[in-house]
Every structure is written in C-alpha cells, then in structure tokens.
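Ticket #4471: structure export looks truncated?
Reporter: QA, pipeline team
Priority: medium

Steps to reproduce: submit the single chain below to the structure queue and open the exported record.
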Amino acid sequence: MQNKNLIIEIITALLVLLFLHTALSKLLDLDGFARDLNNQPFPNSFTPLLIWVLPMSEIIIVAALLFEKTRTIALYASLILMSLFTIYTALVLLHVFEYIPCSCGGVVRYLSWPQHLVFNLFFTAISFWAIIKRQKNIKAHKLEYTQ
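Actual output as written to the record:
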C-alpha cells in the first residue's frame, strides 16, 4: 500500500510543478501570454477571458492537488486539461489549422511541436494512471475496514 501511495504522491508532485510553473509563467508575462493567445487559431475575442481562465484554472488544480480530500477531483481536472492541450497539439501537428501557432509559456516554449505532443501525452498518461491507482487504493482501503 505504501508503494502505491508513493507513486500517486510523485505524480501529484509532478503535476503541481507543471501547473504551478505554467500558471506563474503566464501571470508574470501577461503581455507575452496575450500575444501568444492572439497567435492561436481561435478568435482573438477569446483572449481577455483565456488570459485569466487558463492560469487561474491551473492554480486551482494545484491547490486541489495539495489536499487529500480534493485530490481525486484535481486529478480528473488535470486529466481533462492535459487531454485538451494534447488534442490541440495533435491538431497542430496534423496541420488542421491554416498556420502553426507559437508555442505556449513556460518550459513548453522551448519544445518543438512533436516534443510538445510527447510531453503532453506523458502528463495526460500519468494523470490517468494516478486516478486508476487512487481508485484502487480507495477500494482496498474500504475493504480493509469492512473485514
């Protein structure tokens, strides 16, 4: 049981680092983040909303990951957000959009689009894995108390 919890803790720590880093990099360079958003293939009218919704969502996920009671919902939120980012990256690589937009903030800025896809797939997969592990741990814990 202890080893299973360690895996979830490591995944949680990685997700906290990822989302905290990306949220802070966006908030510390709002002008640059706005330019990046305006270079994406969706209407620029979304920028005023996204400039706050994306980093705040990431910060809320980080906060929820830190507490045992909210960790499961935060893992699901991580999975959803990373899945959306992964789908978007795959669409860029499939040339669905008229042009290739600039990359995102944080460490991802230094990755090529194929590297970005692998990066996103990794974090999507570990989010999913943590959810599965956590659900198994919860079931095993409940079984212990019923016996």
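Status: closed, not a bug. The export was complete when the record was re-opened. Leaving a note from the reviewer for reference: DSSP finds five helices and no strands in the chain.
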